[in-house]
Amino acid sequence: MKKKNLAILGSTGSIGTQALDVVRAFADRFEVSVISAYNSAELLIQQALEFKPKVVVIINESNYTTVKEALAHTDIQVTAGAEALVEAVQLEEIDVVLNAIVGSAGLRPTVRAIEKGKDIALANKETLVVSGELVMALVKKHGVRMLPVDSEHSAIFQCLVGEPSPIEKIYLTASGGPFRGWDRGRLENVTKESALKHPNWSYGTAKNYDRLLLL
Q1: Which CATH number goes with the domain that contains 123?
Q2: N or C, fewer C-beta in 10 Å, the chain?
């Protein structure tokens, strides 16, 4: 069976590191051509030395020299900046681009990868929030697959796979965010600033094996 060749954008984050766990566990099924990080130079270097991708991209250009020097004894190409990431996802050998970077910065590499015929494993939800209509039109035009690989939207996707009858509605429950447990009286005076103070919880260390293997 031919190996799937991956570009992992945001390889030093939670989803990126779990994806590399999948590659470790199923080395006969996956290999990595591109990894990237915004600022985590040391971990990116470690990953590069282990997985030996063709290209490493460090987005924060101030860390370029650190990464470049650490990998100088290898054949790995080290590049820096957002534009370098857009270029890296276009490598001919890449089959799947896993986009696990943060924010709207994920849009451009996703669009370019789709235009080059790459399947997309999407954890960067902002891509669809910012420009969902455009992106999904490109997916259809270029005949690629876009599969969700992050928490809630992956769970919904997996529930729908193979469902024989049309789905009329999907209800998503919310945690309540910073206003969980508040009564109506307190909610009358909430501000934008208080709404943005959303609490964070630890969700454990469950792996994304099933999600990536769907590809």
Answers
A1: 3.40.50.720
A2: N
Residue 214 lies in a domain: no
Q: Which of 156, 30, 38 is nearest to 96 (CA)?
A: 30
* Token pair in block for residue 100: 């696990």
Based on DSSP, count helices (H) and strands (E) in the chain, helices before strands: 10, 7
pLDDT of residue 22: 94
**DSSP assignments along 115-183, one per residue:** HTT-EEEE--THHHHHHHHHHHHHHHHHT--EEE-SHHHHHHHHHHTT--S-----------GGGTT--
- Determine the average pLDDT of the residues in 78-82: 96
Beta bridge mates, 35: 8, 56
Q: Residue 53's domain spans which residues? A: 4-158
124 vs 43: which has the higher pLDDT: 43
